[in-house]
Amino acid sequence: MDPRAKVHAVTGVLPKKAVTLPPRVSSPMKSAKEAFFQVAPLVSPGGTVSMPKPSDDYGKWSWAYRPQVTKWIEVETLTATADQAGFAPQPQQLSEGWLKLRMNPVAILNFWVKEGALAVQPNTNITLGWTLLGGNRATLAASAEGQEPRQLGVWTSSPFPDQCQVHVQARTTYILVLEDKDGNRSEKRLTIAIKGANGHA
């Protein structure tokens, strides 16, 4: 799990619960700017680093390795692994190194529907929830089918709210944007579908 985010537990027996790590554990992570994850062994065509690419939601990924004991090299570009097998023109080689994450100064860690359903009946009220990191301006907009996006809320002072109740009449995409004064930006979208007469979206 991301130490800064919530884990949502749905058991089917007990009420839904969002669990977080205590501040004494998660606070150091909030101020961290870089994180390293060891990867070994990595099989990829000679001369390149090829692997399933992690999400860029939290920052920029690079590959760091040591060709010599006292020397570090960082590769800024990671080649995403293809989803089909094949023979590479270069022989495969084993590598070991570290995935390096340079964290975004602002990030939307989570954006979800608190009631849990992404498809609802028309004219339903739902609660959108989110977890934000950094930033000094947050905006929430809604884009219904065939309509221009309309702004639902703008927040410019901390602490930001962590939820907003909305009324859904048609299929709608909700757009949450977090920004800071230096121009750093994070955006997440969430689409709510409408159930038909047969109960399907």
Gyration radius from CA atoms, angstroms? 21 Å
**Which residues form runs of ≥5 with pLDDT under 50?**
none
Strands across the major sheet, in which order?
10-16-15-12-13
CATH structural architecture of the largest domain: Sandwich
Largest sheet: 5 strands, mixed
Percent of residues in β-strands: over 45%
Helical residues, percent: under 10%
CATH class of the largest domain: Mainly Beta
Structural class: mainly beta
> What is the string of helix and strand elements?
EEHEEEEEEEEEEEEEE
Instruction: Choose one word for the global shape.
Output: elongated
Number of helices, counting only DSSP H or I runs of 4 residues or more:
1
CATH fold naming of the largest domain: Immunoglobulin-like
Q: Please tally the β strands and state the result.
A: 16
What's the helix and strand layout?
Blueprint: E1 7-9, E2 17-19, H1 23-31, E3 34-45, E4 50-51, E5 59-68, E6 71-75, E7 79-80, E8 92-103, E9 107-113, E10 119-120, E11 124-133, E12 137-144, E13 150-155, E14 163-168, E15 172-179, E16 185-194
Parallel strand pairs: 4-7, 10-16
Antiparallel strand pairs: 1-2, 3-8, 5-6, 5-8, 9-11, 11-14, 12-13, 12-15, 15-16
